[in-house]
Amino acid sequence: MKKTSQPASGNLVLQRPLAKRLKDNWQLYLLLLIPLVLTFIYKYIPMYGIQIAFRDYKASRGITGSPWVGLEWFERFFTAPTCGRMIKNTILLSFYSLLWSFPVPIILSLCINQLRFKRYKRVVQTVLYAPHFISTMVVCGMIRIFLSPSGGLINLLLGTSIDFLTESSAFRTIYIASGIWQDAGWGCIIYLATLSAVDTSLYEAAKVDGASVFQRIMNIDLPALLPMAILNLIMSAGSLMNVGFEKVWLLQTDLNKATSDVIAVYVYQQGIENAKYSYSTAVGLFNTAVNLILLIVVNQIASRASDVDFI
């Protein structure tokens, strides 16, 4: 007798009427509704204001009452004397941050995963996570103290009296190094969670076959981390132009502007300090458009490399 194949339980659920599924699981859909509403209110409704980038916005006239000027603000930005420098600094600072900081959480997670003493492992994780909870304001204050030309820790170790924050060539190194110290430990949490889900029988089989620690990392741990690493790379590349405004603003001086003058700080200065709302919106919109293009390009490259669409 020919056996008839039974549909999978997941397919049976999908074949049920939508009204029936809503009735049976209304609590779950109600919980899902909350973040959807918040996202719509705080992310999509404000998009209505993007049009002021194409208007000469006056608060007294409102958005629709302000005259339409087209691409005038974009032209003004691209013809500004500091436009090229700001775009260059933003791209380089973001790219170098991604280049140096992206592999550090992966390396940390691989190292922590090899620790066998649970108490020592928890202490190491706590020490590495702690800097993430320090506010940017405090971190910048610590940086200024450590780099002070008179009594700063770095100058005491080097036997010098250099004011590093006035050196344009040192700004990117300071920004990137402090970012790694602050966020690397927190970033490795997701990789440690991924490694904890790896089947332990794989390690036991590798040990029986005589695989060394390095070989187990290369053949078991890294392949397990690859999908998550690619996803994080895509998300990081999508915000490549979004340099952290707070840290740059707090560490910027008149003498290091050659490398610290970035788009985020410029938008703040023009929009908040100078009240040029339309101009700052146009610059911010350009920044967002570049991020969107980078996100799509990196996703396509990663998808072709791994044969998986992540977004």
What would you say about this model in short?
The protein is 70% helix and 0% strand. With 311 residues, it is mainly alpha-helical. Helix 7 crosses helix 11 (168-187), helix 7 packs across helix 12 and helix 12 (189-196) packs across helix 14.
Give an overview in words.
- The chain is built from 18 helices and no strands.
- It is mainly alpha-helical and 311 residues long.
- It has two domains: 9-65, no CATH class; 83-306, MetI-like (MetI-like fold, Orthogonal Bundle), CATH 1.10.3720.
- The longest helix is centred in the last third of the chain and has 30 residues, at 277-306.
- It is globular and about 75 Å long.
- The two termini are 46 Å apart.
- Mean pLDDT is 86; it is low at 1-5.
